[in-house]
């Protein structure tokens, strides 16, 4: 019932949390100020058009720093779709993870793995939607890391509609 999203993005998971009766509170972090402001607008729109009795907290902060504020197992579920290094550019802001880490390996170790570790610390269960994209084998590297650390996980697939009626499938790691 208590959900944390450490890379809130454009609001799809906020939207889902608001629509899901099982979610009692939704907390998220978004480093980009414009996107953070838009998340607040989305939440206000929900409140105007639907009686919503959920606790929502939106932090304009780096993912890892935001999670460090919470005690161990503060949340029931942490679910996110983090940025895919520089395969997706959200802004040229220096706070964006792809701008802070100039190499894929630096980003993977310095951002993604540290964020996953913090998510595992603050949450009972963690779901990460991440794929191999833009020539980066992010999902494969995450799976290799989880295996090397003997972390118990499952991989599920989410069907993503594509233009033209096709679908692609992306992995969701459930830790």
Structural class: alpha/beta
> Which sheet architecture does the biggest sheet show?
7 strands, mixed
Mean pLDDT: 88
Q: Give the N-terminus to C-terminus distance in angstroms.
A: 17 Å
* Count of DSSP H/I helices: 6
The tally of beta strands, per DSSP, is 7
Please mark out the parts with pLDDT under 50 across 5 or more consecutive residues, or reply none: none
Question: Largest sheet, order of strands side by side?
Answer: 3-2-1-4-5-7-6
Percent of residues in beta strands: 15-25%
Q: What does the radius of gyration come to?
A: 16 Å
Tell me the helix content.
25-40%
Order of helices and strands: EHEHEHEHHEHEE
What general form does the structure show?
Answer: globular
List the helices and strands and how they pair.
Blueprint: E1 2-5, H1 12-19, E2 25-29, H2 33-49, E3 55-59, H3 63-68, E4 75-80, H4 97-100, H5 104-122, E5 123-129, H6 138-148, E6 154-161, E7 167-174
Parallel strand pairs: 1-2, 1-4, 2-3, 4-5
Antiparallel strand pairs: 5-7, 6-7
